[in-house]
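Hey, I'm writing a tutorial for new members on how sequence and structure tokens pair up, and I'd like a real worked example in the thread rather than a made-up one. If someone can provide the structure for the chain below, I'll link this post from the tutorial.
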Amino acid sequence: MKHRARVERLQKAMAAEGLEALIVASRGVIGLYGPLQYISGYHQRTRLAYAVILREGEPILIMPARSDAYWAQVASGYDDVRYVPQNTGFENVTYEECAGSEMAGILRGAGITGGAVGIAGMHHVMAVQDYLTLVRELPQVEFRDATDLFDAVKRVKDVEEIKALEEAAHLAALGFQTFLREAAVGKTEWEVTAAVEQAVRARGAIETLIIITTGPLSRWPSNRKFAPGDVYSCFVEVTDANGYWAEFGSMVSFGTPPVEAVELFQFGKETLDEVGRLLRPGARASDIAAFIENRAQAAGYRMGVWHGHGVGIDHDGPAITREDPTVLEPGMTLAMHPNFVAPDGHRAHMVDMFVITEEGSRRLLRIKPEFHILCQE
């Protein structure tokens, strides 16, 4: 199974960093479900779960519900998958009963009472109660943030993973094409969103984030009806049946769009094409972000949301921001979504996906974002 090979890569990285063990924290929400699925093949739906990876052997999974433990064992094939209750408002779990105490027991059982143990998700995923319990029960262990170590392994894909991500990208593009086919004056955002949902879920999507908006990203679809003259952005973001996250999106108008809106979109499209030429091994995420922002500023535009991020099983690094110095490597896959706001209030949103190759980069899809003009009737 693919996830076993990934665990072996993590164990090599742990050994290189001098870690006796690695605790992986994961939550059943978009953006945080990936760590567990990456190493187990199980797509977590709710709450908080952990995996304890020792220097050798299979991970030990700690799940928040008995059903999770059952299905995680089925998906992973691992022998040791445990149910440990959590504080949820329905259950009051003491420090002695919590997942932190369970993990401390696993580490002691492996003879780890000192040295360094890494935690992936230490600052933004792990529960405070679990961390405090680990520190209290194993005072001689140095618990170290290992999020970057985990991400460095996860964000570089092999040929098989890139092919799987391409299939997920086609699913997102199919959802966008469904939007183009179904959207019409007089229909509500809800109706069209339902059609997009049906199209992608009928083909295996297990998570969706469908954004249909006339303004900033992101917002939930509403009962607003499409009207003549509307200019909309539509992003279709999906997790396919194998856990791979993909995004595709662009803009449409219902009838002839304002010239300013088309010009701004064309600027964004040209920027995205330029970014595709800059994405190559050795480039830094921060340099790509600086290029986008400098180009926008020179044209008199300001930025909307961040410019992009890694994708794989859920979201990956790097983040395409000035603050992320990550050096791009072959096998990294990125969703790029630079967006721009003009002084008159017009906005341009689009998203496309790229893979870093030995020579540079290539798009994962044959289609590109375009400004689509739909009939008013």
